[in-house]
């Protein structure tokens, strides 16, 4: 498909699929096991409907918002996705430039093929650093300190991955990072090699390094070694929301890791309200998982999210056209979100309310009216 | 498909389908009539979602559990499926070896192509004997006594088959046991031949032998002739749960006979909670029907089952690769179940609770909050 004719973010996936080696595309695209949650992350958005308000002056629609004190152009930000140089030679640097040009936030993956320093060298930008807590706490402390020094503004701590989820394509493909690439943040650190084994090479690597014992006390430890705000990424229950807030986290990202961890968890848009209610306005709540349209972002905000993160579409844009592709992805989402706000009758993000959407539960609880009416 | 590359239990079905004669595959695979319940046994699992707890130390996940006093490696056991030598020359003996190597429980079908003595001769293992009550009570008594002497630990009494369900493929295929095989437990007993008639040959045989008059008094009779604990297999209502417990049964297997009896009964995972609530922890409740993933077992346990039985996947593993195939099927389920426990945040089977899942009813009952909240 001629990319100048692309009219929505999903169309980039077809382009990317044709360009990328199967092993790479499969790694990016896969969910865990039956990939039910992968589909559900999209389907659940479909079950939420808008209640647009009409005859409102929408001459000026302002999509800007503030996240952890940073003013950004729109409540649509970039999620951490690993190993972006598999998609395009410029990898995370291309993404960083595109995101900065849109004045929104980029989250850099711990498993990036570019280091925090390289990404920071691209120029000014608001960046978060996604962190896995490894068994070697020194490694973690070093990473965090480097992220701070490189000007990153917050930590997104992944809490849903004590073990890697079962992505069957990666197992069948014996997925391993292409040999000319490396997890740049770990260069020079002794962490073991990713070996080609019976299962996916990444799984072997992770199995060796990810700390399965990670628990709430480690969040407290993390807070003792950094003053950066910590977002807890991967909370989807009210119970864990309360614990996260008690622990002093700065925010929650409702996430199911792109449906790559435990299959048959709810879509993040389905889990969002439970977390928002439990948070009770004490910390901002964000969402990732399945965001493909400006309308998805509007739904998430109406249900209480402060913002959303987009994952795979950035990879598809990157694979298709590098920095220009990522820019286009963000532009499409920005244009769609602006349009959706206007058509819903909101001119500022703060004007988006719960009444702008109707959930499936509300729809199902609409009982028939007992009042008869005359049709004119 | 190269069986090295099999990454889930369902993939063994494709391999088996290619290897087996149509009549045999159809016999194993079929449900009754429209096969609605057959699909529903799978679909209903999809409607149950997880509520995983994060930041819990899952270094050591222990999948072991105790069933009727027997400690086993995981709450996933093997259901009775008939005539396993149609799948593979080693039939039930291969299954018995594979199950014993996994230290879990095998249920031997009354309609096995290997006798209880042959199965016991394979070596030590925890085995249950599935029983149909025949018109000739002497036959039943002999079978039960032989099962006891062969070291079987419990009876699984099938109560949903006063008449064979209408499996249309078997009728069209004029299903009959291949002539070189025999229902080994009935060798030497005068039970009539399976004849090729207008309907499936098996139906004729069963019509002649199964006692349509079977009722609760017969359960009491059965208890007088054996001290083996009796599990009642095929209960799906609260009313029958109460009656079974009053009758002194040792446990209930919520089962719809692999969707082969009455079509349009609920999926067993849907019926489970009603039975669990009625049982009120007086006896253990088990489930069979549609278990294909470790996540299915976790859902059943969260809803109150003590364990689950797996039927068809064992046949597919057996048909594909004999004992090695059955071993692999059990290994896949064991690994998936272990992973699911870890990702859900439980380290022992006893830590699995109702709060780890969300049923469709709970999802639909989430009504909109009347409290407004501020988005940060």
Automatic annotation (TrEMBL), chain A:
Q: Which cofactor does it need?
A: FMN
Q: In this protein, which residues make up the domain named FMN hydroxy acid dehydrogenase? A: 1-362
Its cellular-component GO annotations read: peroxisome
Its family? Belongs to the FMN-dependent alpha-hydroxy acid dehydrogenase family.
**Name recorded for this polypeptide:** (S)-2-hydroxy-acid oxidase
From the UniProt record, give one GO term of the biological process aspect: oxidative photosynthetic carbon pathway
Transmembrane segments in this chain: where? none
Q: Which Gene3D superfamilies match?
A: Aldolase class I
Q: Which Pfam families does its entry note?
A: FMN_dh (PF01070)
Q: What is its EC number?
A: 1.1.3.15
Name its species: Riccia fluitans
TrEMBL record, chain B:
Subcellular location field: Peroxisome
Active-site residues (renumbered): 257
BP GO terms, sorted: oxidative photosynthetic carbon pathway
Kindly list the positions annotated as binding FMN. Answer: 80-82, 109, 130, 158, 233, 255, 288-292, 311-312
Where is each FMN hydroxy acid dehydrogenase domain found? 1-362
Describe the reaction catalysed, as an equation: glycolate + O2 = glyoxylate + H2O2
Q: Which residues bind glyoxylate?
A: 27, 132, 167, 257, 260
Known cofactor(s) = FMN
The EC designation for this entry is 1.1.3.15
Q: Which PROSITE patterns match?
A: FMN_HYDROXY_ACID_DH_1, FMN_HYDROXY_ACID_DH_2
List the Pfam families. FMN_dh
Keywords attached to this entry = Flavoprotein, FMN, Glycolate pathway, Oxidoreductase, Peroxisome, Photorespiration
Per its UniProt record, what InterPro entries does this chain match? Aldolase_TIM, Alpha-hydoxy_acid_DH_FMN, FMN-dep_DH, FMN_HAD, FMN_hydac_DH_AS
What's the top EC group for this one? oxidoreductase
An example of a GO molecular function for this protein is:
(S)-2-hydroxy-acid oxidase activity
Which Gene Ontology terms of cellular component type are present? peroxisome
Known pathway: Photosynthesis; photorespiration; glycine from 2-phosphoglycolate: step 2/3
Signal peptide range in chain numbering: none
The text of the family note is:
Belongs to the FMN-dependent alpha-hydroxy acid dehydrogenase family.
This protein is called: (S)-2-hydroxy-acid oxidase
Species of origin reads Riccia fluitans
């Amino acid at each position: 498909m001629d990319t100048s004719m692309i009219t929505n973010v999903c169309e980039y996936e077809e382009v990317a699929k044709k360009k990328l080696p199967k092993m790479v595309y499969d790694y990016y695209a896969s969910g865990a096991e039956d990939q039910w949650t992968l589909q559900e992350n999209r389907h659940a958005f479909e079950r939420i409907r808008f209640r647009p308000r009409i005859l409102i002056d929408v001459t000026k629609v302002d999509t800007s918002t503030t996240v952890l004190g940073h003013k950004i152009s729109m409540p649509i930000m970039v999620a951490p996705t690993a190993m972006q140089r598999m998609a395009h030679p410029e990898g995370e640097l291309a993404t960083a430039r595109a995101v900065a040009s849109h004045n929104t936030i980029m989250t850099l993956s711990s498993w990036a093929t570019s280091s925090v320093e390289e990404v920071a060298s691209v120029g000014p930008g608001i960046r978060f650093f996604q962190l896995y807590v490894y068994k070697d706490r020194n490694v973690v402390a070093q990473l965090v300190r480097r992220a701070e020094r490189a000007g990153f503004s917050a930590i997104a701590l992944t809490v849903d991955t004590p073990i890697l989820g079962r992505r069957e394509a990666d197992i069948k493909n014996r997925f391993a990072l292409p040999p000319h690439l490396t997890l740049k943040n770990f260069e020079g650190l002794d962490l073991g090699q990713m070996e080609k084994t019976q299962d996916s090479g990444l799984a072997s690597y992770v199995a060796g390094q990810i700390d399965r014992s990670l628990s709430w006390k480690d969040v407290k430890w993390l807070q003792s070694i950094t003053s950066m705000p910590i977002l807890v990424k991967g909370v989807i229950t009210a119970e864990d929301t309360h614990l996260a807030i008690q622990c002093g986290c700065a925010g929650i990202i409702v996430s199911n890791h792109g449906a790559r961890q435990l299959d048959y968890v709810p879509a993040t848009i389905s889990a969002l309200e439970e977390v928002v209610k439990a948070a009770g306005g004490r910390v901002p709540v964000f969402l990732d998982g399945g965001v493909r349209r400006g309308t998805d972002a509007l739904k998430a905000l109406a249900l209480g999210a402060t913002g959303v993160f987009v994952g795979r579409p950035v990879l598809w844009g990157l694979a298709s056209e590098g920095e220009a592709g990522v820019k286009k992805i963000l532009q499409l989402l920005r244009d769609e979100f602006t349009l959706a706000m206007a058509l819903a009758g909101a001119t500022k993000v703060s004007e988006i309310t719960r009444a702008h959407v109707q959930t499936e539960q509300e729809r199902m609880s609409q009982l028939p009216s007992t009042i008869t009416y005359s049709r004119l």
